[in-house]
Structures are given as C-alpha cells and as structure tokens.
What we know:
seven-stranded antiparallel sheet; three-stranded antiparallel sheet; 404 residues; alpha+beta; 14 helices
Amino acid sequence: xxxxxxxxxxxxxxxxxxxxxxxxxxxxxxxxxxxxxxxxxxxxxxxxxxxxxxxxxxxxxxxxxxxxxxxxxxxxxxxxxxxxxxxxxxxxxxxxxxxxxxxxxxxxxxxxxxxxxxxxxxxxxxxxxxxxxxxxxxxxxxxxxxxxxxxxxxxxxxxxxxxxxxxxxxxxxxxxxxxxxxxxxxxxxxxxxxxxxxxxxxxxxxxxxxxxxxxxxxxxxxxxxxxxxxxxxxxxxxxxxxxxxxxxxxxxxxxxxxxxxxxxxxxxxxxxxxxxxxxxxxxxxxxxxxxxxxxxxxxxxxxxxxxxxxxxxxxxxxxxxxxxxxxxxxxxxxxxxxxxxxxxxxxxxxxxxxxxxxxxxxxxxxxxxxxxxxxxxxxxxxxxxxxxxxxxxxxxxxxxxxxx
Length: 404
C-alpha cells in the first residue's frame, strides 16, 4: 500500500473517477484504494477505441486532478516505441538485423565491438548493458556525449552469450542506428514524431516533451526501495547511471522530460500510447496507415536465443525476462502473454500491450512507482484493472473475429 498520509489517501480515494465504461470506473476506484495516486487507462480493439478512463491526482502538492490530457513518464514502455522505429528502418531495407552495428555506426567497432549485431542489441545480448562512467543526470540529456562514450565501451561479456537487460543503453544504441540509417539524419525524437506519431494521428507520444507541454505532466512518487548492494550483480550495477538520482526525482526534472532518452524517457498519456500499441496489434496497420508488415511483427513474437536463461541485470540475475527477437516483451505485464503478444512494462508499473491474435491494445499510465509485485498475483495493484479490461474488451474481440 501507499505511504501517503491517511488524510491525503482519503482525498485521493474519494476523488472523481471518469471512464467511458462503468466497469472500468469501478476498477480504477479499486486502483486508488490499493494506493494508486493518479492513473489513466485506454484500450483499442483493432482500430476501434473501446474505452478510456482516468482517476486520482496528477500532483499531490497542488491537488491537480488527472484528466485525459495529463502526461505521464512511462519508463521502459519507451523501448517498444524505440524498437518500432528500428523495425520501420528494417522495413525500408535500411537496416538488417544480422548486420554488425558498426556497418551503420563505424565508431561503434571500437574496443572489440565490431561483430556485435543489430539483433544482439534488440535482444539485450550485446555485452554492453553498462552505462558510461560519469553518466550524470545532465549528461543523460546530452545525446552526443552519450553516443560518443557508448562507442568507446568494451563489452562486459562475450556478445551473444548472456541475457543482460540494457536498462538505459538500449535506447541510445537503437536510436543511433535509426539516426545513422535515416537519409536526413533527424534527431531520434523528431523521427518518432514524423514517422510514427504524425502518420497515426497520435497527439501525445513524446520522446523529448516540448517545454510548452510540461505543465500537463504528472508528478511521480516512488515507493521502490533504494537499491541494495546484496541484491545487485556487477552487470546490474553497471547498467544504471553512475550518479543517477532516485527515479521519481530524476524523472520529475524538466530537463529529463524534455531530453531524448529513448530507453526510458517517453512522456505520453494512455489514449496516445494505446493508439501506438493498436498499430502493433493491427499487424502494423492502423486506419489504413501501414508502417510495418504483419510478417515482421510475427517475427518479433519469436523468443530470443536462450530465452529461458535468467537475465543477469534484472533482480540480481534471478528472473527470466520474456524477451522476443524484436525487442518486445512477450509476457510479464499485468495483461499477461500469448502467442501473438508484443508488449513492454515500465519501471514502477506502467504497461503497454498489443495482441496480434485478438487485436487488443492497452496502455496503463500512472504516477505512483511501485515494485516487488508479481504481475500474475491478485495482490498486484492493477490485477483487477487487467481482469476488467479483458472482460470489457471481450465482446469487441468477438465481433472483430466475426463470432459476435
């Protein structure tokens, strides 16, 4: 449960809840009762918006309520967007998964990295989960510094031999491949806007939020315990910035929200994120706009090599991470898995989900960062919400399949 003062908890729990379906409204109320502060949810089946809802407070200090326009950091849900950008380049014949990264980014070949492939980056098996030394919050906002330092890093293990989640480095590694293969060398955040958000009519999918939109941002509160050395491995310690602040403090900073952090810095709302995942759930097409082939997305549902081996970065190397070849999770969110699932969780409970089999796409955005919850457990703060989403979406899925 939340660490909020009782009077603040009462205020949040008894505050207004908005949803286009009363069952979703009840589930959101339960989220507040379980300690959530502010939350949004939205879902599509195919190209049809099924519901949207929101509840709670965006900023406890001011009492500002969450609404449809509130923007939330979604942490590693960002990686699904970033991977999609690379797959768009592959769709255009500009990137090959089995090619060395250095073919597109020659400087990357330094320190024995010349044979690391694009797929090894996508599948978190590159040997370089670490962040450069001296990665302060300010330097996280400096693309050129990060890229230059990543190019100089030496692998921590032989590429392709271990699973090691690239918590931060994934974004810049993939993002620089996209930038280097873009004929006009756009900034990565601009590439996402012009090649994903704008074609799909998505208003608020930002990797680098404009200053003009900062006032819509929710304030984060973290209940994740500080890292403990005994639960960390050398790889997991190296995968985080040297001088990073606590997660909520770091991602409440304006400069971090405005910067292009493609591994975990997207700022969005549930309606916009759900529309992005609807592209994936629709087999690469949404409302007549095709960005990816269904064949490519089906390839992404293939588990990565050594898929059942524990990841050496997450939770002290004791967790099997459900990663596919395309850089998406195949399970591990409150919406669970299946043969056609492409999804990604974010630190503290954010979730983006797409199911190619059913056409269901879901986004959950929130501002209370919690940890240590089993996503399959009824004790998970979003368990009832996940169950309700599936129940509300079921008749829409049936109709789409021609059975209703």
